[in-house]
Structures are given as structure tokens and as C-alpha cells.
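[User] Once you have settled down, look closely at the record that follows, and write a paragraph about the fold.
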Amino acid sequence: MIRNNIQYQIPPEFDGCTADRFLRAQGFSRHLLIQTKYQENGLLLDGISIRSNQKLHAGQILRAAIPHIEPNENLVPVDLPFSIVYEDSDLIVLNKPAGMPVHPSHGHYDDTLSNALAYYYRQRGESFTARSVGRLDRDTSGLVLFSLHELSACILAEQMRNREIHREYRAICTGTLPEAGCIRAPIARAHDSTIERIVDDVRGEPAVTHFERLAVCNGFSLAAVRLETGRTHQIRVHMKHIGHPLPGDFLYHPDYSRIARQALHSYKLSFLHPITKQPMVFTAPIPEDMQALLSDDAHTG
């Protein structure tokens, strides 16, 4: 069940501080705190309604309501298959198949992961507003993180800004990659396209990609890839830039002889849980269409 309030026992180090100061330290943004305190019984201290400037004492129990946000009326619930890797009352981690967008957009109003989640929670009698934490391109498979309420969204967004959510990809590239490397090449929008990106030393924004070669087979390299920056199409553009584009990439290497989409997979996701603060680590196996590019005699690089 999606969380609608959160309860804290005040620790000794916050004895004498105000409720708003304490909640800000727990990850409430100023906007979220305003929404919370203006709800009926939004803040309860030992069961009694309080103002946000109320002083707290160690051992007291503070309960804060999490504001209910009405779901997007334009998000159509649709019964679509999807794979749940992990779920609790604060977040859900999914293994997205290739070909499924994360959010609705032009031409994709009812075939996205967000549509599927809206249906899933409606069947359980719960409202859902799509809040993905980071996105994947439509044809990139793998792990996607969604927050399930406003507090979780607030904390995870701050983790994203601080680069505290770590993602590792698996990419299959043409040719034999170096054993390891770091690509530092600024990325900009191509002049004649709304979606294509290029390396551009003049107009580009800084972009840094780290890779390690894991295997080589049949003219392809399997690589583990990590990003320091999050530019649109960064892995795809950088691998093309160094002469090792991803097969099946309709923008940067449209060779569909072995795979029908870019050979890129979000393999590993790690972060601190927004509420419990426990380390969370998830992996999703490389899908079959990418495995098929590498036969059993692939050798480690």
C-alpha cells in the first residue's frame, strides 16, 4: 500500500528543535512542508495537532501526513505486462522491456510504463501519479525507479541532483573496445534534428562516460558503462564518437542485421532508500536479444 503518512521518534540530537527544522532534515522540501502543515492534522506530536514551529523533545512521536496529489487525468490506465523487481510503500523498481517508453509522449499515449503502473495501482484501489527517477530511452531496456508519493519523490530527486543514485549499463558495441577508458566529449543537439545529438566542442555541454570491456565475440564488445553526467543519448553518442557504435541504433548506427534496437541495457541500480536510508542494490539480467549477439565462446577481455 502506498504510504500516506510517516512517523518519526525524535532522536536526542534534535531535542529542542522545531518540527519544521526536523522535517527539513529528514528530506522534506520547503514546498512539501507547506503542503503538509496546511492539511487537517498534517502534523501530530504524540497524537496532538501542532504548528510547524512547535519545539520537539527527544522520544516524542511526530507524525507527518504526506500530501495526496491527484493523478494526472490524461494518464490512461492500460493493462500492459511489466516486470516488478522490487516494491514497497515508497518506491517501485521495474525491469523495462525494450520498445516501451517510460512516459506518454507524441505517438505514445497508452503504451508506456506509466500507463501500465496507473492500471496496476487502480486495480488495487490506489491512485498513482507517474514520478520516474531518471529515464531510459524507449528502446533501452532495464531498471527504472519510480517514487510512489511526494516525500519519496522529493528525497530521490535530491539524490539525483547530488548524483547519489548510481546506474551501471551493459552496452554491446561494434568492434573491439579498449580494455577500459573514459570519454570526455561535450554533447549538443544536432543542428538539423530535434532528437539527434552530436559531439560538439563549441556548443556542447560537458559529458563524461566511463567504460570497461567485459567480453569480445563475433566482432562485438560487451561493456560495463557508468556515467558522470546525464546527457541525452550520452552512451550512444560517445560510443559512436570513439568508433564503436551500438548495433541496432536507429540514430547513430542503423544496422539491424543482428538486433532490432540499440544494444543498451540498464543493468544495475543502487541508492539509499528515501525513507529507511538503507542501501538498495538491484540488477536485471541482460535480455535475450543482446545475449544473442554474444555466443558461448565469448572470451573475457
Q: What stands out?
A: The chain has six helices and 16 strands. The mean pLDDT is 94. Helices lie at 19-25, 30-37, 113-123, 150-161, 234-241, 288-291.
